[in-house]
Write a structure and sequence with these properties.
Length: about 375
C-alpha cells in the first residue's frame, strides 16, 4: 500500500495527537496556483477559514496571495500574517458592526455583501467614519455544485448571497447610498467541487449577470468566482497538487470579461488540504464480537469533518507493513459520532502505532475544539521538525 512519506522516527518523541504539515508540498501547490492563475492574470485570495494556522498563513502571504476572510477574527489574522489590506476581501452573512469597522479602519479591498440589510449598515458605518466602502454584491447564482448538502452554498434555499430575482432591487437601493461604491460581483457556490460542469455553469451565469448589468448601464471592475475546487481524498499521493490548470482554463475559456475587468478567486481547501495530516497513536485495539475497533488518541475534537459531514479521510498505519485487517477506527470522545471510518483496512494495529489521517490540512486544525476538556492539538512542520 502506498503511504505518505512520514518521518516516523522523529514523531516518536512527540505527544500525539498533532498536525503535521508538509511545507514543501504547500510551496509546490502555491507555485502551481501562481503559474496557472498567472497565465490569465487572475488574482487569488486564499480562503483563511480552511486553515488559519499562523505559520501556514505567513507562508501563503509571503507568496504574494491575497486573503478571503469570513469574520473579523480572520481579517485580523490575515493582517497579522502579513497579507496587505489592499488584498483582503471580507464575506459572510452576519458581519457584526465591529467586524465591519475593522475592515473600514484598515481600508480592506472589498466587502462581499450578502444582503440589502447589510449594505445599508455598511453605508451607515462608513458614513460615520467619512469613508467610502468598496463593496461587491455576493450573488446567489442558483448553480448546483453537486456536492454534499452541508457544503453547497449557491442555491436559492441557502442562507448565503443575494438572490438573482432581487438583484435589480438591491442595485436600485445601492445607487441611492453615498458611502458604498460598487466595485464587483461575487459568487461562491460551494466546496469540494470536483465536477468542472459546476464551474462552467457558474461562468455562463456570470456572463448573463454581466448582460443584465450592462442593460442597466453598469459595468463592474471586478468579478470574483469564490473558491470550491475539490481535492482527491481517496488518493492523496496520486495527485497531491490539485488540477489548477483545468480549473482556471474553464473560466478562461467561457468567461466573457468586459475590457479592463479583473478576475478573482478564493481557493481554500485546494491549497492546504493535502499538505496537512493528523497524526495520532493507537491507544487500544478492542476485539468486539462482530468487529474490531482501533481506538485512537485523536477524536472529532481534532478532526471534525467525518462526524460533521460524513467526510472521508484516508487512514494509514504508518508504523508497520504487516498484513492488513479491518477495523472501525474511532476516537476517545464520548459521542457515538466520534468515528473516523468503518471497516477500514489497516496494517495490523498495535497499541502505540502511529496512525495518519491524510488530507487533513483544510477544515481540520482550524475546527478543533476543547470538548471533553481536551487540549487543542499542536502543529509541526516538515522543515523544522
Ligand atoms: C469557504 C469559502 C471559500 C473557500 O472554499 P474552498 O472550498 O475551501 O475553496 C471561498 N469563498 C468563500 C466566500 C467561502 O465562504
Amino acid at each position: 500500500m502506498l503511504k505518505g512519506n512520514f518521518p516516523v522516527d522523529k514523531f516518536k518523541a512527540l505527544q500525539t495527537p498533532f498536525y503535521y504539515y508538509n511545507v514543501e508540498l504547500l510551496q509546490e501547490t502555491l507555485d502551481m496556483v501562481k503559474t496557472e492563475a498567472g497565465k490569465y492574470g487572475y488574482h487569488v485570495h486564499y480562503a483563511i477559514k480552511a486553515n488559519a494556522n499562523p505559520r501556514i498563513l505567513q507562508l501563503i502571504a509571503q507568496n504574494g496571495f491575497g486573503a478571503d476572510c469570513v469574520s473579523g477574527g480572520e481579517v485580523q489574522a490575515a493582517l497579522d500574517a502579513g497579507f496587505p489590506a489592499g488584498k483582503i476581501v471580507f464575506a459572510g452573512v452576519g458581519k457584526a458592526d465591529w467586524e465591519i469597522n475593522l475592515g473600514l479602519d484598515n481600508d480592506i479591498f472589498c466587502f462581499n455583501v450578502e444582503s440589502l440589510a447589510e449594505l445599508e449598515i455598511i453605508d451607515e458605518l462608513a458614513a460615520a467614519k467619512g469613508k467610502t466602502a468598496a463593496v461587491a454584491l455576493r450573488i446567489n447564482p442558483e448553480v448546483d455544485a453537486h456536492t454534499h448538502a452541508k457544503i453547497t452554498t449557491g442555491m436559492k434555499e441557502n442562507k448565503f448571497g443575494i438572490n438573482l430575482s432581487q438583484l435589480g432591487m438591491v442595485l436600485d437601493r445601492l445607487a441611492e447610498l453615498k458611502f458604498v461604491k460598487l466595485i464587483g460581483i461575487h459568487c461562491h457556490i460551494g466546496s469540494q467541487i470536483t465536477d468542472m460542469a459546476a464551474f462552467r455553469g457558474l461562468t455562463i451565469r456570470v456572463n448573463e449577470i454581466q448582460d443584465e448589468l450592462a442593460a442597466r448601464g453598469l459595468q463592474v471592475e471586478n468579478l470574483n468566482f469564490g473558491g470550491g475546487l475539490g481535492i482527491d481524498y481517496y488518493h492523496p499521493n496520486h495527485l497531491p497538487v490539485p488540477a489548477f490548470d483545468n480549473y482556471f482554463a474553464v473560466f478562461n475559456k467561457l468567461l466573457q470579461p468586459r475590457p479592463g475587468q479583473q478576475v478573482h478567486f478564493e481557493p481554500g481547501r485546494s491549497i492546504v488540504a493535502q499538505c496537512g495530516n493528523l497524526i495520532s497513536r493507537v491507544l487500544y485495539v478492542k476485539e468486539g464480537e462482530t468487529k474490531n475497533f482501533c481506538i485512537l488518541d485523536a477524536g472529532f475534537t481534532e478532526l471534525l469533518r467525518p462526524a460533521m459531514y460524513d467526510a472521508y479521510h484516508r487512514i494509514e498505519n504508518i508504523s508497520n507493513d504487516e498484513p492488513v485487517a479491518k477495523y472501525d477506527v474511532v476516537g476517545p470522545i464520548c459521542e457515538s459520532s466520534d468515528v473516523f471510518g468503518k471497516e477500514v483496512e489497516l496494517n495490523k494495529a498495535h497499541r502505540g502505532d502511529f496512525i495518519a489521517l491524510r488530507s487533513a490540512g483544510a477544515y481540520g486544525e482550524v475546527m478543533a475544539s476543547q470538548y471533553n476538556c481536551r487540549q487543542l492539538p499542536k502543529a509541526y512542520y516538515s522543515d523544522t521538525i
